Amino acid sequence: MKQPVWVWTIIWxxxxxxxxxxxxxxxxxxxxxxxxxxxxxxxxxxxxxxxEISLYLCIDQLEARYQERQNRQPGEAxxxxxxxxxxxxxxxxxLTPALWSNVWAEYAKYDPSYxxxxxxxxxxxxxxxxxxxxxxxxxxxxxxxxxxxxxxxGILGLLLFYQKFYCTGLYFFTYLFNRRYEGHSRAAVWxxxxxxxxxxxxxxxxxxxxxxxxxxxxxxxxxx
Length: 224
What we know:
By secondary structure, the protein is mostly helical.
């Protein structure tokens, strides 16, 4: 059964949010907007970590595709491809790095650093994929199952969310400082680059606030 990638993405987010929301309500008798917000964000991050690991595994192909695109002569016909999230995919294909590497093939049109293994963008996203997968899972389940004390969970989350916030800010700096927006419409830059990255500053900022309360209050009350 094939569905557009965006449909699979909605299903993924719904399973995590509804599943952990239901478990949280059953265990603690309440739902928290802070809890659901961070569950949603970390569910997105889990999906992104797989995409970032795919970037590492498929960088050879991405560099070759980008070079091929650059070598096309003016006026040469270009193959038409559906936008990644609109393209149909089977459940089995979702488990393959080759599928998710197409995210970066599209994004490299706006920022070629994602088709260059020597770039900061490549390094920071690959690093995020490998380094935040386990901490994200621990924080996700720790908010409900209380496998750590509020202090330990708060410290873990503060490190996790600060890394995301800082690295995204640094990425914006490199993108603007190196003027990678040149040659693209303002609308495309704002929607593709700005829109896809700004959530990695907004939601980590929320996460840092929640973690601060966990540390200061030594209590899970903010998540209840």
